[in-house]
Amino acid sequence: MSRLSAGTKRRVKRSLAAENPTIWVGKGGVSQDFLKEVGKQLDKREMVKVRILKSALEEGEAKSIAMSAAEQLGASLVEVRGHTFMLFRRRKK
Question: At residue 79, what are phi and psi to the nearest 5 degrees?
Answer without folding.
Answer: -160, 145
